[in-house]
Design goal:
This protein is mainly α. The chain has helices at about 10-35, 40-50, 55-80, 90-105, 110-140, 145-165, 200-215, 220-230, 230-235, 240-265, 280-290, 295-315, 325-345; strands at about 1-5, 345.
């Protein structure tokens, strides 16, 4: 048996395997719900109700989807150019750190200018975190999977040092957290009294902007070409190294915006548990979206709905909320297999 590449996959072959991957995910979840003593239909109904059953639930789902859209876009941009960015977590925290530095009194600016400065600075911070691994990849051939993954742990230790030292809130009663952002550095709420903030709108705009870059610009064409075959792209005159570096800056910048959004729009201060793994979950989001920027929005909403609904379901049905983690892991594995089946067919030797 061997895998044979498919030159031009049909529409059915591009659509059917991903659809079967999602169906298989729900089958696995249903079996696990039954093992845990729950009714699968009741469990899925409770997840749906917990995520979309009220105005509060819908807004919480949108709120939870916001950082996943940013990190999903960051991963999708990088993966499309075969830049394996596993370090969105570090890039997210880099954006959060610079937001706190600027937004806690370093400057005194009107709210629009302060927010713009924090957002741009967060993008630059995230971009610079990924630029290092990208340079190591292009100059020395160092595997970026290793460097970006290890940077997550290194940067988290750096954040821990900052929260116990230079950025520690003197009024925080000893807790390792930063001071609160000034009101001028806080993203306003979309709906007063609820937590959904304008970071969600910024995430939607970012998805649209990435789609335009991918489909309407020379850079988007070059990223696709490098991702398909870097050697052939270089032979055709595309500056492969420059394209990879530009991709790294864009990808890291998007992940940095996730940190800005979480601190400025939701938390108001920096803590070590700011992200429960948004950078890693962004990989699942990007793969479920098949690396399409607009699909990332849908995939992020799907993942956020599972997490938000699973908490409510766990309390009502007595089924562990870890079912959500298993569903996402299964979805990733099945989707990777689906992508393989869209591009290759099995042949007997």
């Amino acid at each position: 048996m061997r895998l044979e590449p498919i030159a031009a996959p049909s529409l059915g072959r591009r659509v059917l395997p991903p659809a079967l991957a999602i169906a298989a995910t729900f089958v696995v979840a249903a079996l696990l719900a039954m093992i845990a003593g729950g009714n699968p239909f009741a469990v899925f109904g409770l997840i749906l109700k917990g995520a979309f059953g009220s105005k509060f639930a819908i807004l919480e789902t949108l709120n939870s989807a916001t950082p996943l859209i940013f990190t999903g876009l960051a991963i999708a941009v990088a993966f499309r150019a075969k830049l394996w960015n596993i370090g969105a977590e570090a890039q997210l925290y880099a954006g959060a750190v610079i937001t706190v530095v600027l937004g806690t009194g370093a400057l005194s600016l009107p709210a629009p200018l302060m927010l713009a400065l924090c957002a741009i600075s967060a993008m630059l911070a995230g971009a610079l975190i990924l630029l290092g691994p990208a340079l190591l990849k292009t100059r020395l051939g160092v595997d970026e999977v290793v460097t970006t993954l290890l940077l997550n742990f290194i940067f988290l230790l750096f954040v821990s040092y900052l929260l116990e030292g230079p950025l520690k809130d003197p009024m925080g009663m000893g807790w390792p957290k930063s001071a609160r952002l000034l009101p001028e550095a806080r993203l306003p709420r979309i709906v007063e009294g609820l937590r959904l903030h304008w970071g969600f709108a910024l995430a939607l705009f970012a998805a649209l902007a990435v789609w335009v870059i991918n489909t309407r610009t020379t850079l988007g064409y070059e990223m696709r070409a490098v991702g398909q075959n870097a050697e052939a792209a270089g032979f055709a005159g595309i500056p492969v190294t420059k394209v990879i570096l530009k991709t790294a800056l864009l990808s890291g910048g998007l992940a940095g915006l996730a940190g800005f959004s979480e601190v400025s729009g939701l938390k108001g201060s920096l803590t070590l548990d700011l992200s429960p793994g948004f950078g890693y979950t962004g990989i699942v989001v990007a793969m479920l979206a098949l690396l399409h920027p607009l699909g990332v929005v849908v995939a992020a909403l799907f993942v956020a709905a599972i997490f938000v609904g699973a908490d409510s379901m766990s309390r009502a049905a007595g089924v562990p909320s870890y079912l959500a983690d298993i569903m996402l892991a299964s979805a990733l594995l099945f989707m990777v297999l689906a992508i393989l089946l869209t591009k290759f067919r099995l042949r007997r030797d």
